[in-house]
Amino acid sequence: MLYLSRRIDFSATHVYRVPAWSEEENRRVFGKCNNPSGHGHDYKLEIMVKGPLNEKSGIVVNTTEIKQIANSFVSEELDGKFLDREHPFFQQRIPTTENLVQYIWQSLENRFKGCELHRIRLHENHYLSAEREGGSMTRLTRKYHFCAAHRLHSNDLSPEENIALFGKCNNPHGHGHNYYLDVTVQGEPDPITGMIIHLSELDEIVETVVLNKFDHKHLNLDTEEFKDLNPTSEVVAMVIYNLLHPHLPQLHKIGLWETEKNYFEYYGTGEQT
Length: 273
Known about the structure:
Blueprint: E1 2-14, H1 23-30, E2 39-51, H2 63-77, E3 81-82, H3 83-86, H4 88-91, H5 97-108, E4 116-125, E5 128-133, E6 138-150, H6 159-166, E7 175-187, H7 199-214, E8 217-218, H8 219-222, H9 233-244, E9 251-257, E10 263-266
């Protein structure tokens, strides 16, 4: 099975509002997204399809067909629209990132010939995205940032072995990174709010449980979590998952960017990827 993807960009405006709620409740739950005048985003939509290789043509499907179908859908229904005022679907549902990705999936699922829709991923901005894949639940990813220092050193290895394995990262004084943390939750969007979890709630949990512990800290010297653990990024991702999971039953995975080139994921013991 081969997988191929196409990215399409579009812009749209929307407001998050539940008409049955008071103005105070809408502002409390949706914050700035409740601005009555609306706000907008430059969305990036990734459409991935899958299928067997056609041995005669050497392709799965003509990517021009995918482009035409996807561009036509986006142009007619989403691009340049004030979604909850102009689109019938979103006049009845809040156009959250989760609801948007579900609607796009339902709209495109059976439109492609010779291949099958595999995944829809929608980036609302650099810090928020949602995706839908096959029969899986909708997933929402929120990106966070923290700065920390660490030293890579294993007490189970000799000094020579540590230097050979970790090189400059074994510097006794430590070194630092601008970490970017992807927290992915999964579930079905609430029928009223359109959210898997309130973003304000997610932000508060991550800030309290993770960022306040690790931001601007030396992981080896300033934290209890890494007093006896070698803070490789693999271990940091695992520790963060285990810290968050009791507070976030919807947690699907942790992604940790140590640098722009080094990325790590942890799904939890026994979790399916």
